[in-house]
Amino acid sequence: MSLEERSGGIVRARASPQPPSVPGPRVQHPSRDRPLSCVMLAAPVLLLLLLQPPCWAGPASKDPTTALSARLYHQVRSGGAEENIVFSPLSVVLALGLVELGSRGSSLKEIRQAVGYSYMTAGEEFSLLHNVSQDLSSDSSHCVVRLANSLFLQTGVHFNPEFLHLARKYFKAEIETVDFSESISVAQHINAWVENHTESKIRHLLSAGDFDSLTRLTLINAVYFRGSWKNQFRPENTRTFSFSKDDGSEVQTLMMYQQGDFYYGEFSDGSTEAGGVYQVLEMPYEGEELSMVIVLPRQEVPLASLEPIIQPQVIEDWASSVKKQKVEVYLPRFKVEQKLDLKETLQKLGIRNIFTKDADLSAMTDGMELFINKAVQKAYLEVTEEGAEGAAGSGMIALTRTLVLYPQVMADHPFFFVVRSRKTGSILFMGRVMNPEVVEYNDHDFEVM
Questions:
Q1: What gap in Å lies between CA 133 and CA 146, rounded to an integer?
Q2: Which of 11, 101, 240, 303 has the fewest CB atoms within 10 Å, i.e. is most exposed?
């Protein structure tokens, strides 16, 4: 079967190869000025090696990111450290799509099972990924979404023309030849490509040590997103506020405030696993094609008590169950960034073969045995007010809890978030805020609430 029929790293040489259901939550129904912008980026890289000659399947979903996103999140948080998390499921899925395009045999099967494509006709996922990318990066969108893919090939190595053709067709991949033996200049060149496609937010993704004379191909995907809230925060309402961390300590952060119409719901999983009732707030960006979903446990409940219920079906239930109503929102300014070892994470999710010398990536190039040596992602998310320096001095009176007339979302303790397409359900970013942007009193003129 040809690549067209089924459409559907750093590379190094070696010696001869060796033989080788979670229930949905119950909904609890409760009784523009200067914009706040949100900037998010991700850049994964897959590095493949040349070899010299001698599970689990996600639920059926039209969205290619939902099935994998929750499993990725649980693997990332399993590290144990109570730190901020941010990664892009969309970016991982697109990078894996390019690898899948060049895979055969067990390598192909593992990717399809882990991402959740097993229910699809072979190759159908490539059209789906193409359509999702087109929808998200449409010029008609009110938000800026840039998706970029690139293949850097070793000069003089012959790659399958059909693989390169389909990489362009489905992923609009840029294809360029380089000499990986010139590791310093190649690292600088690829890092410059990443910076250019992420508004210079993702820097130093790779180093010269990531390449050597055996490298044959490096695959890069970059996702850049910038959007303004549909209901914008007024910078003059921002105040210094205490944020209670799950270890019992407190830090001072800049807390934004507004009262507006948002999608809101109170949920319970019917047990004490999630700490009882928790809040879900969906805040659309301008145009309402994309939104950020904030999931907040009760003040006294650690986020770790809620996290086990995060599963694809639960995320979909949140999105379909929240109702538009007037809500008071307290949300901290925050910035999170993270570099992940995707190789280790994907191996734990069942994608193992492509990282071994038994990998079958023969659809990329005939006569060479390739395997993926390294897979990393660096993601960046920032929620901040534009022109915040003009926010000092104006007054806002904080309402006491006894005077609240509407549901109140007080994100003054750790919370989970998702940035998703409201049309397709595609998850651009997922993560948690355990420790927001910390400020000192003497650094700001803001009044302490």
A1: 9
A2: 240
Number of Cβ within a 10 Å radius of residue 263: 21
Residue 242 has pLDDT above 90, yes or no: yes
Residue 42 has which token pair?
Answer: 């991700």
Residues 6+ apart with CB under 8 A from 46: 9, 95, 98, 99, 218, 219, 342, 372, 374, 375
By CB atoms closer than 10 A (0-12, 13-18, 19+), residue 212 is middle
* Pairwise CA distance, residues 390 & 441, whole Å: 17
Q: How many helices (H) and strands (E) does the chain have?
A: 10, 16
Q: What is the mean pLDDT of residues 391-412?
A: 52
The pair of structure tokens assigned to 376 is 């990393």
| The model scores a pTM over 0.70 | yes
Per-residue pLDDT, averaged over 244-267, amounts to 93
Q: What is the mean pLDDT of the chain?
A: 79
Convert the pLDDT of each residue in 218-238 to its tens digit: 888 888 888 888 888 988 899
- In the chain the domains, ranked by start, together with CATH numbers, are 8-15+39-228+337-382 (3.30.497.10), 235-335+397-440 (2.30.39.10)
Distance CA 278, CA 415 (A): 11
Contact (CB, 8 A) for 333 and 60: no
Average pLDDT, integer, range 91-96: 91
- Kindly state the tokens that stand for 388: 């915040």
Whether residue 83 has pLDDT greater than 80: yes
- Four-residue CA torsion sign, 279, 280, 285, 288: negative
Check residue 285 and report its DSSP letter. B
Q: Across the strands, what pairs with 280?
A: 265, 295
